[in-house]
Amino acid sequence: MKIKNFLSLEWKASFRSASFGKSMAIKVLMGFFGLYFILMFLSMGFGMYWLLKKEFPDQNPLLIVNNYLFYWVIGDLVFRFFFQKLPVMSVKPLLILPVKRRKIVNYILGKSIISFFNVLPLFAFVPFGSILIANGYPVDSVLVWMLTVILITLCINFLNFIIESFSAQKELSFLPVIALTGGTFLLNYFNVISLTNVVAQGFNAIYETPGLVVIPVIVLAGLYLFNFKLLRGALFLDSGGLKKEIKEVNTSSMEWTKNFGDIAPFMQLDLKLLWRNKRTKSSIWILLIGLFYGLFFYPQSTYQGLPWFFAFIGIFVTGIFLINFGQFIPAWDSGYYKLLMSQNIKYEQYLKSKFTLMSISVIILFVLSIPYVYFGWKILLAHLAAAVYNLGVNTHVILFTGAFNRKKIDLNQKAAFNYQGTGAVQWLIGIPLLFVPMGVFAIFYFFIGFEIACLVLAILGVIGIIFHQKLMKTITKKYLESKYKMIEAFSEDN
Amino acid sequence: MITTSNLSKTYSGKEVLNIESLDIPKGQSFGLVGNNGAGKTTYFSLLLDLIQPSSGYIKNNEVTVNKSEDWKPFTSAFIDESFLIGYLTPEEYFYFIGELRGQNKADVDALVAQFEDFFHGEILNQKKYLRDLSKGNQKKVGIVAALIGNPEVIILDEPFANLDPTTQIRLKGIIKDLAEKQGITVLISSHDLMHVTDVCERIVVLEKGEIIKDLKTSDATLKELEKHFAGTVLSEE
User: How many CB contacts within 8 angstroms connect chain A with chain B?
Assistant: First the structure.
């Protein structure tokens, strides 16, 4: 088996996947994100030299940059831990073919080098280095410095996989990396060990004595070999990367859901769904991010003067779960949709359980967001109006759009790459849910006033709540109409 | 109990099922055999209203299945793993199905307890999710779940596949018992001719979507089926 065969497999895998067409939009969006980062890094690379020269005229820009490389290393490490995974699973069919394991391992590791994460830093460091050379820095030294940066990027690349392989099987797998990077950051911050200096002096030394570049080369080789050993040992069905992890289950009877009457069985099912699948667990974590979203804006005085913006944040903060969970109704249940459809269930109860779950989340999130009143009572008022709007309008809107859902979700899939696709789509679907109320709010705010704008949002919400029964009937009808299409779509493999 | 009339299913111009008429009386154990693509699963899916017929209809106890949902309370099925909920334990799954079919926990426990032999100690109290069970054990759960709630019609697609020999023999006992003693109409499909002839009173052979044989099981049936399928292999070669 030659490299050519591996590459052709790779090519077919990406272009023949059933979801290729469907996920095109996501890819385009991801492409834009990628482009955005590239532009950011490029402008950083081109602007850095002049900016530093202007701000610190008596210092050497290169030395300043070297001083900050430590933060790049740990930042990169954290970022990669959450977003970069070694694609081990895809080689399972190769194991029994006459291909040397050594080759497979080299292929997986080699492939990881051609990653966006490794290319991105080049967009900053290459222009920066070129400008240094143009400004009379010694060519060979700068080139070696750039080489070192690339070597360190690759070191981070492989170090990340090592960290991952050691923490993958554990609950709260992100703790080790947070502890490691947080620990080094704190050690450095409180000057116990000045790692900033260590890294900076390392780079400076290599810059001055190019021969020292062998040190990162040796480190890189060491990390590669370590990865090689780990991965080679992991290419068995009962170990490491290919193993199916089975955890012991803790069950609880959740008797309290009985208070919800006839929707109780579905409520229990939904709660278990949320808590027991990796895919859904991540949406619980997003709750935290959503709840603190306001902190990005409210402390800044710019946003304090923009009250029409409060409604947007209010919808987001109180509706983060609604948006996150709601957009995949009924796809969450796609794996056993045939079962539900052949059982003696009332569709309305099924949907009502989802509705109840989302409503409760809005109320809880509103209560948790009350401390934002610290930044002004107007914020609390806007959040309250937004919460009512979420309860009355957005819940129904998102349930309704669910009837058009034709994309299966594989709950069992562990690949963390799922999160990325999800994130992009979430934003796309979030737009009508977020921007319509924001627009309505802004219009009334500019023409009449803040209180009236809040009132309008709340009234819209109350209207939705009043017509809840009727709306649910319409929504249920829509779901029944698309029953066969959904069953068909959900039984297709992606 | 189940009346099929002028039923056909067409996918983009290609007919995959065409049954002019098929009556399955109450309490019959009915077997459906045929090679891959013969239309067995299509027929069961139509019976469960999971796909729509291109023409004709199926009546289950006088209820036209694609018009009304009133057949659901007395009909249950296990077609494939997509009838299982992977993130539940077997017990939770049984209770969930039980609740949908109006059975309380005690009812479900009592029913499930009868199948301890069948489970062979690998299902209950294992603290494992269904998705982490082996294929065979998943199948056992699905089959037993289809028995919850006193259904009058039970549909099992390929119930013997993936099961170990001991379990196959036990399952045969269970199915026979359902039809003979409890008067339940049982529909199964299988590729294993021996099992079907052991279990079913009546066997229908499908080929390319059409019924080509409708046999009342006797001592000669197995031979006849074997001859038939050996014949189709020869004629296709």
Answer: 80
> Closest chain B residue to A487 measured between Cα atoms?
B50
* Residues whose CB is less than 8 angstroms from the CB of residue A27 and which lie 6 or more positions away in sequence, other chains included: none
Model pTM?
0.73
Distances (CA, A) of B217 to B4, B23, B41, B176: 21, 16, 22, 13
Q: Last residue of some domain: A181, A210, A242?
A: A242
Q: Name every chain B residue with its beta carbon within 8 A of the beta carbon of A335.
A: 82, 85-86
List Cα–Cα distances, A238 to A164, A232, A233, B87, in angstroms: 18, 13, 10, 22
pLDDT band at B146; cut points 50, 70, 90:
very high
Q: Confirm or reject contact between A248 and chain B (CB < 8 A).
A: yes
What percent of chain B has pLDDT above 90? 58
Residue with tokens 């008067």: B183
Residues A223 and A305 in one domain: no
Indicate the helix (H) or strand (E) that contains B92: helix B90-100
Same structural domain, A114 and A230: yes
Beta-carbon separation of B50 and A343 below 8 A? no
| Record: contact B132-A244, CB cut-off 8 A | yes
* Chain A CB contacts of B101 below 8 Å: 343-344
Give B-chain residues touching A276 at CB under 8 angstroms.
Answer: 87, 129
Q: A272 to chain B: which residues are within 8 Å by CB?
A: 87-88, 92
Closest by CA position to A157, among listed A120, A205, A204, A129:
A120
What residue numbers bound the domain in which A376 lies? 255-491
Lowest-confidence pick of A55-59, A312-316, A377-381, A464-468? A55-59
CATH of segment(s) B2-236: 3.40.50.300
Could you give the maximum distance between any two Cα atoms of chain B, in Å? 56
From the centroid of its chain, how far is CA A103? 32
